[in-house]
Amino acid sequence: MPETHEITATEADHGQRVDRFLAERIGNLSRSRVKALIESGHVTRDGEALAEPAQAVRTGSLYRVAPPPPAPARPEAQAMDLDILYEDPYLIILDKPAGLVVHPAPGNLDGTLVNALLAHAGEELEGIGGEKRPGIVHRLDKDTSGIMVVAKTEQAHRVLSDAFVARDLDREYLALAWGVPNPPEGEIEAAIGRHTTDRKRMAVVEQRSRGVQRGAMAGASAGKRAITRFTTIQACHGAVTLIRCKLMTGRTHQIRVHLAHIGHPLVGDPVYLRRIPAASKALEPALREALLAFPRQALHAASLGFKHPITGKNLSFRSNPPEDFARLLGLLECNIP
Questions:
Q1: Please, are residues 113 and 102 in contact by the beta-carbon 8 Å criterion?
Q2: Could you give the domains of the chain?
């Protein structure tokens, strides 16, 4: 295990940037490494996690730096059931369940989709696109379900990655959001960057949307251009809406951030649903309770279409929402056309 450091700030340290202060006092950690540890939640002040490397040091405070154990250089193969929709010598199409992390990272060093893929595909997958994320072309958040494509050769990985960057494919999500969007469809164009005081969140830094105008989210850092197109499928009980979303760019948490930004956070979103929605008051108690108790963001990658990276054949795949999502839609009497 890496060494844990505990440092008490003196009066002479007061007011310094905390990342510079800790790097100087520890000696064998660079300032950039300390900054990364702060942003990943591995530095505390008096027992509370720090969120911002630029925070000022407080006299008498106890700072604790606890680097995580190093991740294995190469993920290990771990057998688990996968819902594979299609497979050939070049790629795999699968339906990822909610709760499954795509690739190893601090806090999830194994038991990921990559570990399962290595067990399924064996040596032919190793090293494709990099040792730590073999075969991964794109990813879904841990608690987002739905269709993913995985490459089995370097050429397939390169062509598919280029297609995702160029958006030369069709990808559609189903989202269950609080409230009823007005207008019922539109395009949200709003740059997304990492939140400066909560490094686990993303935030809108500017906004130019058709039909909706909002200000930038406070505390956001510089971001990247992001565009989401949305269409209302069905408004349910005047309180929640089933929405079809298409990504024109691919930013972290894009749909979740954009819909929350225009006032329609996803049902169950543990990060961007910040308070009990006023729209929930219109629901019958049992239905309101079911929606408020939903344990994850109600988001499903429902379809994916693209040209085969080797043969050029048009491929198209669809996936129905998983059982928990479908049960919620059934309670709402909300239908997917």
A1: yes
A2: 5-65 (3.10.290.10), 71-166 (3.30.2350.10), 174-302+328-332 (3.30.2350.10)
